Amino acid sequence: VFFKLPSDSFKYLGWCDIEEHDVRGNQLRCPRVREAGPSEQELFFRGEEHTLKKRKQVTDTEKWQKKLQENWENCAELNLSFQDLGDLYQMENFKRILQRLIRVEKLWLMDNSLTDLSAIRLPRCRELNVNKNYFTSFRQLPKIPQIQHLSLAENNIMTLSGISGFRHTPLESLILKRNPCEFQERYRQLVFSSLPNLKMLDGIPKLPQDCSPPDKRVFFRVCTIL
Question: DNA damage among the record's keywords (predicted)?
């Protein structure tokens, strides 16, 4: 038999919305970006209407003032790692902020259980760290045309399919450590042949042997394990 914990009815009461302060979004380096609890619609679909409280009617002017106060559009360097995005409304707010980062140049999104940011565009981003997430393909990454340093360690990228999408970017450094694709035969040569501008892979500079073209015969070799 399932019993709710005694504190269940108070699980959203710890959220605080500070309405008057002088701190803007672009002044923060490691903010928490959760909304103040689920929306009324989200609570309704969960069958948790009993947690609804009387909420102040927010005018369009107040909404606009709050948006200006966040000021994500002018943020140049931001760390949104370890957000613990355990619920849908948290992830939606997280992506809403990412869509507003039109001037960000350095961005850290480590350990956020991210799976797909392909709808996000970061036009000025030069350095992106998405270590320890759940990406399975390069195609799930955001649009980053100015990227120079990209770190994808400890994801679940199986193959190098889609990596050529970065061919025409100024990408110089790429980290793919602890991804399944790292164990692909002639891994380094395949990466460097796909990315001619790349200078460093997994912390190791481009070596002469990395420049040799992939051996076509490798695809016809058969290994028998007894």
Answer: no
